[in-house]
Amino acid sequence: MMNSSRVFLILFLLLNIFSSSFSYGQEIDAQTQKLASVQKSIKQKQIEKDKLAKDERTFKREVQELDKQINEAEKKIKDIANDIANAQKNLTGASQRYDHATHQKDAISLDISQAVLQYNKMVLVKTYDQEPVEYKIRQKGLEYNQANLNKQVKTANISWQEMDKWEDAKQNLLNLRKKESSLIAQRKSLADAKTKLLKSTSQARQKAETDLKKLQASAKQLQQIIDRLIAESIRKQKQEEERKRQEEAKKKAQASISAAPPAATISPPPAAPPPTISGSSRRTSLDWPVKGVIIENFGRAKHPELDTYVVRNGIKIKAASGAAIKSVENGVVVFRGNISSYGKVIIIEHSNFFSVYGMLTDVSVSIGDRVRRGQNIARLGSGENNVLYFEIRLGDEPDNPMLWLH
Question: Could you give the CA distance from residue 402 to residue 406 in angstroms, rounded to a whole number?
């Protein structure tokens, strides 16, 4: 009867522990799936934000170029206006000279006509022999007036040609100003449209950044939940292992008591302590998880597209296609699942730190498996999938893996 009660109690405890572990496993899976969904949204929102930021920079450059072209065209129009004013000044001067020459020509023509008339009258009543002096005076007057007339005619013709030249120049300048003014109007209209597009793109980019921050906050909160669940799962697992150890020790003790004299007692052997790494030798003492080239470093770095900085909790190592991923130290697998940004992920608990392996293709270990230092735990893919994401965490805080790997 006593033995039956004890068996019933053990079964009850096992069932309770199994139910609790199963419940934690279900909750971890549920939260991990939720986190994967959020991280997928983060990735999509990041792509959207990057595209909007790129469009924003493109529109800004186009608006700046249009503003530059408008300023140059307005300066050109200002220069054209000065040239038009100069052409108008020259045209006015030529016109005044032409009017003056024409007026002088008309007056001289009238004088010549009157002088010819007087000369003809004199010829009718007097001979050269009778009045030689008057003949010479009138002839010289006619010659002078004729020369002066020729001079004014020449001046009028030159002024007329200048008027034609400056009138053509003025008309060409007016046409050029009209063309430049039309071009400025078109560029201003295009600049206004680009400015409106720039404003809407900037607003969309700001909204995307706000949404992204909210998603990142949600991801952080979910990660904290998962970390807590994993920690609780590990604690339960350790409790179960300790319970089994004590139960086994108790069974051995009872068996020894039954077989040995009453005075003899046997104590169970102590459990072997897990492998540890001393604090002084931990940094730079771990093996690399894979051979390759680091393409992303740990810590704060400027985003290649956006004018902002991002913080990276781990490093990325580009390796050979299908390369094997190895555990950096002895430990226990406490997480195996999918996280959107990092694909398939393994988390291994070591003596007093965690190692995280992401962007995996084939995983060869399961939760609860004990792994050795250098043991193959997964493989990378090929092509663009031959990159490993690797983290070291001290508790909840990420640490620079380069300070740990030798």
Answer: 8
More confident residue, 268 or 143: 143
Structural domain total, the chain: 2
Q: And the tokens for 102?
A: 């024409």
> What does the alpha-carbon distance between residue 104 and residue 242 come to, in Å, rounded to a whole number?
130
Helices 132-259 and 2-125: crossing angle in degrees, nearest 10, is 180
CATH code at 187?
Answer: 1.10.287.620
| Residue type present at position 1 | M
Identify the domain boundary among 209, 236, 269. 269
Distance CA 243, CA 237 (A): 10
Res. 314: pLDDT tops 60: yes
Instruction: Please say which residue of 221, 247, 269 terminates a domain.
Output: 269
Rounded to 10 degrees, the C-alpha dihedral 304/308/311/312 comes to -10
User: How sure is the predictor about 213, in pLDDT bands with cuts at 50, 70 and 90?
Assistant: confident
Residues 259 and 281 in one domain: no
* pLDDT score, position 261: 54
Burial grade of 327 (CB within 10 A; 0-12, 13-18, 19 or more): buried
pLDDT in tens, 379-390: 999 888 899 999
pTM (whole model) above 0.70: no
Same-domain pairing of 263 and 286:
no
Sign of CA dihedral 172, 178, 179, 184: positive
User: How far, in Å, are 5, 147, 181, 225, 274 from residue 219 at the CA level?
Assistant: 48, 104, 56, 10, 33
Q: How far apart are CA 172 and CA 167, in angstroms?
A: 9
pLDDT digits (tens, 9 = 90+) for 318-342: 999 999 999 999 999 998 988 767 8
Tokens 């939940």, residue located: 225
Domain membership of residue 284 as a residue range: 276-406
Helix H or strand E segment including 64: helix 2-125
Token pair recorded at residue 350: 């070591």
**Side-chain half-sphere of 265: how many Cα atoms within 13 Å?**
2
